[in-house]
Specification:
Blueprint: H1 2-8, E1 13-18, H2 30-41, E2 45-50, E3 54-55, E4 58-59, H3 71-82, E5 92-96, H4 112-127, E6 134-138, H5 145-154
Parallel strand pairs: 1-2, 2-5, 5-6
Antiparallel strand pairs: 3-4
Helix pairs in contact: 3-4, 4-5
Length: 175
């Protein structure tokens, strides 16, 4: 983080991955908490990219409870985010998974309906923490604007569920 701070300056963004999140996840591991605290101590804005399990050469899509039902995974995401440190000096950005439109990132079968449903439920769970310092970011997308349209059509709540698009992470009013 010292090099990142040198490169991005005071209140620049520092992004890292928190992976291995499953339905059984009960909160962040200590290294994740340490990372966020270190960002704050160095006057950097943490951007945490939440992710699942890497296996067999790719990332597994979140496991639904039933088709379209990701409440257990959303609860696990909430458990992680809820126990991360926060400060009034800057927001905590939470990116929900990554590039779900790529085979390698979504169990070799990208599906806009699945990601949109998962994202909406994860965003609802994070919002239930009721902390305006937390900003929700969609998973970054590999260049494919048609896929964005398909997600929005698949679940109309998708476009209303995040605070910042991952392709444009710089808010208008950042510190």
């Amino acid at each position: 983080l010292q090099w990142a701070r040198h490169l991005v300056g005071k209140w620049g963004y520092a992004k890292t991955m928190f992976t291995g999140i499953t339905k059984k996840t009960k909160g962040p591991n200590s290294g994740w908490v340490d990372y966020v605290n270190a960002c704050y101590a160095m006057e950097m804005i943490p951007v945490v990219r939440l992710g699942g399990v890497y296996a067999a050469g790719g990332w597994e899509a979140p496991a639904p409870d039933a088709p379209g039902d990701y409440h257990s995974m959303a609860a696990a995401v909430k458990a992680v985010v809820e126990k991360l440190p926060r400060t009034d000096k800057c927001p905590l950005y939470v990116e929900v998974w990554n590039e779900p439109n790529l085979d390698v990132e979504w169990s070799n079968r990208p599906n806009p309906q699945e990601y949109a449903d998962f994202f909406v439920q994860a965003a609802e769970a994070i919002r239930s923490i009721d902390d305006p310092r937390i900003r929700i970011v969609n998973g970054g997308l590999a260049t494919d604007f048609e896929w964005v349209e398909r997600m929005c059509k698949a679940n109309p709540q998708f476009a209303k569920s995040f605070d910042v698009w991952a392709s444009h992470p710089y808010p208008q009013n950042h510190p």
